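Title: Prediction job returns without error message
Component: structure pipeline
Severity: low
Priority: P3
Assignee: unassigned

Description:
Job completed but the reporter wants confirmation the result is attached to the right record. Sequence as submitted:
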Amino acid sequence: MADAIADTRRLYAKPQNLNDAYGPPSNFLEIDVANPETIGVGRNRYTTYEIRLKTNLPIFRLKESRVRRRYSDFEWLRGELERESKVVVPPLPGKALFRQLPFRGDDGIFDDSFIEERRQGLEQFLNKVAGHPLAQNERCLHMFLQDESVDKSYTPSKIRNA
């Protein structure tokens, strides 16, 4: 082993031009959860969130999309990914059961600060999940991010590159 000499040659990278430095990245996936909207009154009241996706990954059918989803839709997605994929799925932000109790001094789950906190948690959740290469193959993720409505009676399957 004393005869082994470490290879100390330098790797020569090709010079970078302005298009390489400031052009779009070779692969990107941007997901924003924004514009929370509370709909309805009384017991039929709920909040939806706009999900904006921009990507150049070939596995996604649409390169840009905007859909609206409720918290229960996020729960459905998490359940499907846990059941169908081999990915460790991160937790969603909590249900906030105490905020749903009557006779509170605030708006409970419809309080602006709570909605913003939940929005941030949902955005983190989606970026972690959608950034995982194995999760990107799941039909439920594509449906959640790009279809106008979620068909909860879909047939689970994998997406193939086009």
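Comment from assignee: result matches the submitted record. The longest helix spans residues 112-130.
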